[in-house]
Amino acid sequence: MAMDTRRQEVLRELGTVQDPDLHRDLVSLGMIQDVKIEGDRVSFAVVLTTPACPVKDKMKQWTQDAVSRLPWVREVAVDMQAKTVSSRAGSNEQLIPRVKNVIAVASGKGGVGKSTTSVNVALALAETGARVGLLDGDIYGPNIPLMMGLTRKPELHAEAGKIVPTRSYGIRLMSIGFFTDEDNPVIWRGPMVHGAIQQFLRDVDWGELDYLVIDLPPGTGDAPLSLSQLIPLSGVVIVTTPQDVALQDVAKGMAMFQRLEVPVLGVVENMSYFICPTCSDRHEIFGKGGGERIARQFGVPFLGKVPLQPMVRVGGDTGRPVVITDPESVESQAFHAVAGAIAQQVSILAYAGQGSFIPAATLTLKK
């Protein structure tokens, strides 16, 4: 009886801690699991909705502080875990049934760093422990193989008859660039683009993935239309630069995805500013605040700013992305923050569609 009373006290205190995005307490969300009480020591697991949760450390501290308020508790051990939720649950889509979330990265115009963002965000998600795939959806200008330092072709899986994605830095990759001569352009009409994207989904053994990031070509052409018709997307990330000429095209892209009923996860402002390496002054070369303005205009989240720094370009050209080669740099930290914000929005949309993440019935007490 005393143990049950103490259990209820622990759960009551943990019930005061809310998920800042879902606006509900962790107990009712089913995020508190494996509660153990051993004398004056309490341990439990906090099961997050994504390993890329940007407030993971704060959540650990909040729960630890809450239980420590109990007068009989002398020690609190918190095990932070993650179980990525799917925003595609309940879908009848069969092309990639073992992929939990599909995130498209798009831009209104070329040259804004969309592929760079796709690569570094995918790597940042993978570094949190998530299982990540990266699909190069730009049929006409596939840059992902170069940016990820790969030239070898994928292999055919003899038993299933499917293509096994290549791997780089722990990420599964697929691109038309693996199958074409880099000196010869791809000259295809719309139906052929549609067929290629369908094959990259249906005929590739992606396996179990938490996130599949798809780098789309710029503009509002065949690829984004085909993708939205073939599979349910978790959402799309819009990449822009601050200047007005880029924002004009972003507005068209945003309107297209809204018309296709694809959720817009938010806006990333790339090349946002430059930090001088000699004086450390910050310069807004392409203007200021454009990404935030377009996000406000369309009522979507602003996911963050990425600076214009030479190492980002060098990493893309050499196949050694900056998130891997210089993880402590300002630009690398910016990509990590953007990745966390994207994962955050995917979880919020998943919650809105499913009502809860982990059934409260799975809560267990071990003595």
Task: Describe this structure as you would to a colleague.
This protein is α/β, with parallel strands linked by helices. The chain has helices at residues 2-14, 56-68, 114-127, 144-147, 190-202, 222-230, 244-259, 290-298, 310-318, 322-325, 330-354, and strands spanning 32-38, 41-48, 75-82, 102-107, 132-136, 155-157, 162-164, 166-168, 171-175, 211-215, 235-240, 264-269, 274-275, 282-283, 302-305, 365-366. It folds into two domains: 2-83, GMP Synthetase, Chain A, domain 3; 102-353, P-loop containing nucleotide triphosphate hydrolases (Rossmann fold, 3-Layer(aba) Sandwich). The chain has eleven helices and 16 strands. The strands form four sheets. An eight-stranded mixed β-sheet has the order 8-9-5-10-4-11-12-15, sandwiched between helices. Strands 3-2-1-16 form a four-stranded mixed β-sheet, with helices on one face. Helix 3 crosses helix 11 and helix 5 (190-202) crosses helix 6. It is globular and about 75 Å long. Mean pLDDT is 86; it is low at 355-367.
